[in-house]
Design goal:
- The protein has six helices and six strands, in the order αβααβββββααα.
- It is an alpha/beta fold and 161 residues long.
- It has one domain: 3-Layer(aba) Sandwich (Mannitol-specific EII, Chain A), CATH 3.40.930.10.
- Strands 1, 2, 3, 4, 5 and 6 form a six-stranded mixed beta sheet that branches.
- Strand 2 and strand 3 form a beta hairpin.
- The two termini are 14 Å apart.
- The N terminus is likely disordered.
Length: 161
């Protein structure tokens, strides 16, 4: 798949955004987000994909500074590179192992097993955006799935070249 093909298929859509998310823990959060990817036909085997996400979580914490969790996996069960986004309910947060505390933004990144460089590129680009406080705050304050998906997609404009 060339980068331009990927740009045509949006990385996230309003259907892949959960507002006011409440989850028991990071595995539950990943499960809720993965279910959205599965419903959208972007993940073929929900249980298989989640097992890979959770196994990745056990290898290394995926919390970023500023209250962000970025669970992710490359998987044969992923049809197209996708990002599902959860913004937690006010006052609710989840421990993703970041040193500065729990997460109120969770972005589940799913990439096809064969797309190794693409996986790293999406992770790196998204992380650069998420390190900016104004970007994180825009996501938290949006309260609108359409706006959130637009913010995420436009932060990954490197695909459009």
């Amino acid at each position: 798949m060339t980068p331009l093909d990927l740009h045509d298929a949006e990385l996230t859509t309003p259907q892949l955004v959960i507002l006011d998310m409440v989850a028991e823990d990071k595995a539950d959060a990943a499960g809720q987000l993965a279910a959205r990817l599965h419903q959208a036909g972007r993940v073929t085997d929900l249980e298989g994909f989640l097992a890979q996400v959770n196994s990745r979580e056990h290898q290394m914490a995926t919390g970023l500074p500023g209250g962000v969790g970025v669970p992710h996996a490359r998987s044969e069960f992923v049809e197209q590179t996708s990002i599902a986004v959860g913004v937690t309910r006010y006052g609710h947060s989840l421990d993703f192992g970041a040193q500065d505390g729990p997460a109120t933004l969770v972005l589940l990144i799913a990439t096809p097993a064969a797309s190794f460089s693409e996986h790293l590129e999406v992770l790196a680009t998204l992380a650069r955006s998420l390190f900016k406080e104004n970007f994180r705050e825009s996501l938290r304050r949006a309260h609108d799935a359409e706006v959130i998906s637009e913010l995420i997609n436009s932060s990954l404009v490197f695909f459009d070249h």
